[in-house]
Design a protein that fits this description.
It is built from 21 helices and no strands. With 455 residues, it is mainly alpha-helical. The chain has two domains: 202 residues, MFS general substrate transporter like domains (Growth Hormone, Chain: A, Up-down Bundle); 212 residues, MFS general substrate transporter like domains (Growth Hormone, Chain: A, Up-down Bundle), CATH 1.20.1250. Helix 13 packs parallel to helix 19 and helix 18 packs across helix 19. Its main location: membrane.
Length: 455
Amino acid sequence: MSGVHTHSGSDRAEGDRRRVRRFENRITVSAGGGEVCDGWVLGVVGAAMPLARDDLALTPAWTGLIGSASLIGLFFGGLLFGRLTDRIGRQRMYLIDLMVFLVGSLAQLVVQDAVQLLAVRLVMGAAVGADYAIAGALVAEFAPPHRRGRLLASLIVFWYVGYTLATAFGIVAAQLTDAPSLWRWILASSAIPSLVVLLARLGTPESPSWLASKGRRAEAEAISRRWLGRDLDPPDVDREPVRTGHRALFSPGYVRRTLFTSLFWLCQVTPFFAISTFAPQVLGLLGAPSDGTGELLLNGFLLVGCLSGMAVINRIGRRTLLIWPFAVTAAALLALGLWPHAPHAVIALCFGVFALFHAASSVLQAVYPSEVFPTEIRATGIGFAAAASRIGAAVGTFLVPLGLAAWGVGPVMLLGCALSLVGVLVSVAWAPETRGLELERVSRPDAPERRGRAT
């Protein structure tokens, strides 16, 4: 009989593990669905704006402003709504931002002029910035240490899936019809994933870590036992409570982490815009047509790079995945800067190496900011780092074309190389190895800066 009881207990324990694992996957997919919406909202602009130009009589200035409105909104959304997520909770903001996606998507069907479209795109961009902070914080706080890296990294994969699907939808729609209002339906198509993800998020619980940080420990304990099958970790009485707000990001315990997450993200984003100058040339060399299919192929290639990063993050660790890709991308940009008129095969090789290593390392944009800040300022820190990265996006979008006109390709590539080298230095100096560590330990202000192999 004892053997029967032991076997039954083992089966029950295995069943509990599978149930918890399914819940962790549900949280990640629900959070990742928001990233699909983020990528979709940003991805449909490329196909829609050329079609909207005539219908709304847009000048080049208005076209550029509306095209970049989501990035502008993301900057302010990351700053404002990351902090709000730390104040009012992950689950509430988790639903609100999807409602904004849904309403904003549908509002694009009825806008009457450029000003209205700009306003809608700014609001949707702010929701994108909010979702960056919400998704990372929620997944980090529910994921166990041994799965946290891959689950967080998958958020960037979801983003590329959304961006690629949006690009494909725009290409197909443009080939099927030339209706004057097509651009409205392309922009409004983000309502479909928004509704699906909103429904998927209904019923998900609040983060027990956040509840505990607000003194609601009984609620936190109940959620942890029901959904995670374990008791909540005892409170860390030695750690001073952190006051929610941007000021805490620049307190002595966290200022280096704030600078690290913001700088490495910015140093990843900005050179990408510089090398994307070569995209039409390289894609043409590879025989891609000029109807947008080449961009779709590039997005697919970047998606493969992200999947590669997610696959190796637990094997090689965060620190290695950040430092070496920075070094490799710097080398690719250096070659292009010193030899801007190289044979097409060399340019294609440099472009491919850069894109693959950049994409693999970009998964850390969802990992590091979600890990190194404590619960009270986790979403605030993620939102701040995301906003800082948009400075790099703005530099790439607006200043790279001016630099190309004034100095030529070589100097611009060398500037991109310099930024990648800054990324190397920042990462070598400040990147901790957080693989396999409990989130509470990683986010302590006095956490040891582990440089070697995690145990």
